[in-house]
Amino acid sequence: MSELNMELKKLRELEIKTKGLATRIQTTKNCNGELDVDLLQLQIENKKLKNRLFILKKSIAEESTAGGVQLKDSSSITEHLESLFAQAIASAFPEYRDTPVVIAPVNSSSAKFGDYQCNNAMGLSKKFKESGISKAPREIATELKGHCPPSPIIEKLEVAGAGFVNVFLSK
C-alpha cells in the first residue's frame, strides 16, 4: 500500500503541474489562432492522469473497507505475509506460536508455484517429531492454509509438494 501512496503523491504533483499547463493551454495558440498539437496532447495526458488518480483513490478506499487483515502503509508484501502466517501458526499450533515465519519469493517464471511460499511446515514437523508427535509436513501446511486469515493482497493459497504453502497474490 505504501507503493500506492507514493504513486498517489506523484500523481498529485503531476496534477498540480497539469493544472498549470491547462491554464497555459487555454491562453496559448499558434500563429494561425488554432490550438497547438503539442498542447492538445498535454490535455489528453492530463485527462489520463486524472483518471489514473481516480482509480488509485478508489482502490485505496476499497482496500480500507475490505474485510480481513488490513495492509499497513509501511509494510512490505513479505512483512504482511509473515504477519499472516505468524497468526496462522499461533492459531493452528499455539505451542509453537513463537516460531519465526519463513516466507520466500518464488523464483520461477512459471505461475503455477505462485508468487511467494511459506516454508514453515517442514521445520514444524521436525519440532513435532522432537516432542514425540508424528505429523507430516503436508498435513501441517494444510492446517496453516486453513488458519491463515484473509487478506486483500492474496488471491489464493495452495499446498504443494512435501509441505509448502504457495501464495498467489491478487493482481
From TrEMBL:
Annotated keywords: Aminoacyl-tRNA synthetase, ATP-binding, Coiled coil, Ligase, Nucleotide-binding, Protein biosynthesis
Pfam families: Arg_tRNA_synt_N
A biological process from GO: arginyl-tRNA aminoacylation
Domain (Arginyl tRNA synthetase N-terminal) ranges: 79-169
Family: Belongs to the class-I aminoacyl-tRNA synthetase family.
InterPro entries, alphabetized: Arg-tRNA-ligase, Arg-tRNA-synth_N, Arg-tRNA-synth_N_sf
Entry's transmembrane regions: none
E.C. number: 6.1.1.19
Reaction(s) catalysed by this chain's protein: tRNA(Arg) + L-arginine + ATP = L-arginyl-tRNA(Arg) + AMP + diphosphate
Coiled coil regions in record: 32-59
The protein's name in its UniProt record: Probable arginine--tRNA ligase, cytoplasmic
GO cellular component labels: cytoplasm
Enzyme kind, highest EC tier: ligase
Lineage of source species: Eukaryota, Metazoa, Ecdysozoa, Arthropoda, Hexapoda
GO molecular function term, any single one: ATP binding
